[in-house]
Each structure stands twice: as C-alpha cells, then as structure tokens.
Amino acid sequence: MSGNTFGERVRASDEEREQYANMVRAGMTEGRLTLEEGEERLGQVYAAKFRDELPPLTADLPEGGRRGLHETPEAKARFARDGRRHLWGHAGFVTVVAAALMGLWVLSGAHFFWPAIPLFFMVFGLARHARWRAYGGHHPRWGHGPWGHAARQGWTR
Questions:
Q1: Are 42 and 24 spatial neighbours (Cβ–Cβ below 8 Å)?
Q2: CA separation for the pair 122, 140 (Å, rounded)
Q3: pTM of this prediction?
Q4: Which DSSP category does 1 fall into?
C-alpha cells in the first residue's frame, strides 16, 4: 500500500522550513524573541526533518508567527502591487462591460437608458474596491464594536 497512512510522519520540505524560518526572523525583528532564542529556534527549524516538528517553534508567537509574515516590507510591497493590478483589472472589466451595455442600448433603440442600473452597481463595486485598497485591505472602522477584532482579543476601549 503506497501513500500516507494515519501513523506516518511527513517530511518537511525546504520551502516549509524557509517559511518557518521567516516567521522566526519576523518574531526577532518585532522584538518578541531575543537574538539568542531566535538563533536557537532557527537552528531547530533548519534541523527539522518532519512537518510536526515545525509548528511548536512558532506556537508562542501571535497567530503562530503568521502575522509577522504579513507585516514584513516585502509582504506589504507585494500586497500593494497585487492590489494595484487587481484594481486595474476590475476597472478594465467594468469598462468593457459598460461599453457592451451601451452598445446594446444603442442597438435596442430603447427610450430610457436602461444600462444605468447595472452600471450603477458595477461602478459602486469599483469604488468600494478602490476604497478598500486605499485602506490597505481593511477599513479603519471595521473590527470595532461587540463583534469586532478588539472584542475577540478581550480588549475594551
């Protein structure tokens, strides 16, 4: 029987070890780990042979160390680059569909400008996309109140 059975351990890949090493480095950069502790954990990360040896090395960092990966300058630059690309793609889609709808309106000979209804929703969605991107992927007012992120963390005003 080839394949993974329940009791087998899976070997860690170089990419997985590098991802965990980046999480440890981010923890060191944030000041959550001392230099000595970070170097010790980096050694353990690169010495790990199996996947189940990696998560305990970042378990005491916020969100298992994954938050630090998203706050690195490289990740922020990638987010900005991808956000611009997606916004331009969205704008291009709205432009093409708007042109097609207006062409259909001209060909239909309708007396009222019926494409205004779908165009309103498409432009509204594009404006929300642009605003979401301007706030870096999160709205400054979202996450507050009794169901927000601060409430889940146990914080109060």
A1: yes
A2: 24
A3: 0.53
A4: -
